[in-house]
Amino acid sequence: AQKITQTQPGMFVQEKEAVTLDCTYDTSDPSYGLFWYKQPSSGEMIFLIYQGSYDQQNATEGRYSLNFQKARKSANLVISASQLGDSAMYFCAMREANTGNQFYFGTGTSLTVIP
Amino acid sequence: DAGVIQSPRHEVTEMGQEVTLRCKPISGHNSLFWYRQTMMRGLELLIYFNNNVPIDDSGMPEDRFSAKMPNASFSTLKIQPSEPRDSAVYFCASSNSGTGGYSGNTIYFGEGSWLTVV
Questions:
Q1: Of B45, B59, B66, B107, which sees the most CB atoms within 10 A?
Q2: Predicted confidence (pLDDT) per residue in B8-50, tens digit
Q3: How many angstroms away from the CA of A37 is the closest CA of chain B?
Q4: d(CA A48, CA A39)
Q5: How far apart are CA A37 and CA A40, in angstroms?
Q6: pLDDT digit string, tens, across residues B43-94
Q7: Nearest chain A Cα to B104, which residue?
Q8: For residues A81 and A113, is the Cβ–Cβ distance under 8 A?
Q9: Helix (H) or strand (E) holding A49
Q10: A38 in contact with B at a CB cutoff of 8 Å?
């Protein structure tokens, strides 16, 4: 089974609107971390936000927030007030605490912000 | 602080040649990862090290690929002989594996080595 599933290959959003990028995960480890990365066209991978499995509140970092629904095993990224510079690939990732610290990445979602 | 440093940034080589990609992880990080990214296959984990020891190399495509980490501040990924299908962006990334099974340490990527084999 896929550890991380991102079902939206491409998304479009109007500038200044909010957008949600979906991510579901699969693990039996009670301790894990969920991460989102942004990859603009220049190619670098930029860390955006982290959510721990024991965290009670959803993580937020500026315009980024993580909608963590543990029972559903989902960790959707919400970008508020989209900007043209948000156009990029977005990757969801997971790290399991007790399986050697390997990172698992999803296939990514391409986000295009429309002026 | 310096991030993960990769070299070369770009390399064009002929089929059959040896390619060596280099990586300097963030100081103090004890986990190092090599990823390959292509349009067709996305981001693939090739190998990762904890404390300089290879933990999982199941992603290494074939015997033409080898990776070493002789010390905590340096790693290489070698392709010999190279083939056109090896053309990709190769990322090195590092992380602190933490203690007690903590999963919160994020992974930081280098800028990638863009390899073209002609």
A1: B107
A2: 999 999 999 999 999 999 999 999 999 999 988 889 999 999 9
A3: 10
A4: 10
A5: 10
A6: 999 999 999 999 889 899 889 999 999 999 999 999 999 999 999 999 999 9
A7: A33
A8: no
A9: strand A46-52
A10: no
